[in-house]
């Protein structure tokens, strides 16, 4: 299957510059260097391998040959506290696009792409803030294609009858997903985006334990924080856990 008409139109309309590299430390880092040099946004950086790819906790992102490693650089004007919106809309856009290829991918809060309970990919957003406004953002995306993955990971190549046939096609699907997710956020706003995000959230309704207290995941708020309903005998309350305060982990 090739790109559909809408995806092709989106890519052409965006007039995106795409910079391709072989082995670099990280696509996010190269994107920031290009921005420093005054490169015109939006643009995309793609590498065949990364030697220092990172996830949101600063942990290493395994980036051997065969995987998709890209960063999308944009200029924008967003209040600093809205930075999580960029991760949410990117996740929604990419998941919706992969679903169009019959890949049953979901989101794990806040920034993982999950397939068959394993980690297929991740999104790592970095921003530049000036006077409390985000002026530039780099959204990094890693998706496992044929590359080797850690135990909790999975790659698309391991699927039977995967309808995506090449790394190039996967790159186009991911870039189109980033553009359509961002467009959805700009045109429909954060409330609609959160509804779309929750619809793809694997953790929705999941029971978790916080400080010995059992709770149920009931959503995500406007800052991307996880909403958890805690119920104990005689009392119940809803709390919000900001991004970066807990990791939901993988139960294999
Ligand atoms: P959270 O679950 O809160 O997103 P995280 O554990 O996913 O946190 P990140 O920093 O986002 O942390 O991602 C890095 C982690 O992802 C690594 O510690 C490793 O467990 C896993 N990982 C690294 N490379 C890959 C890969 N190519 N595919 C799947 N998982 C990977």
TrEMBL record:
Keywords annotated in UniProt: Ligase
Superkingdom field: Bacteria
Domain named BPL/LPL catalytic: residues: 6-186
InterPro entries: aa-tRNA-synth_II/BPL/LPL, Biotin_CoA_COase_ligase, BPL_LPL_catalytic
Single GO MF annotation: biotin--[biotin carboxyl-carrier protein] ligase activity
Sequence intervals crossing the membrane: none
Pfam families assigned to the protein according to its UniProt record, in alphabetical order: BPL_LplA_LipB
Listed GO CC annotations: cytoplasm
SUPFAM superfamilies the UniProt entry points to: Class II aaRS and biotin synthetases
Record carries keyword Transport: no
Keyword Ligase part of the UniProt annotation: yes
PANTHER family assigned to the protein according to its UniProt record, in alphabetical order: BIOTIN PROTEIN LIGASE, BIOTIN--PROTEIN LIGASE
Name under which the protein is recorded: Biotin--[acetyl-CoA-carboxylase] ligase
Taxonomic source organism: Aphanothece hegewaldii CCALA 016
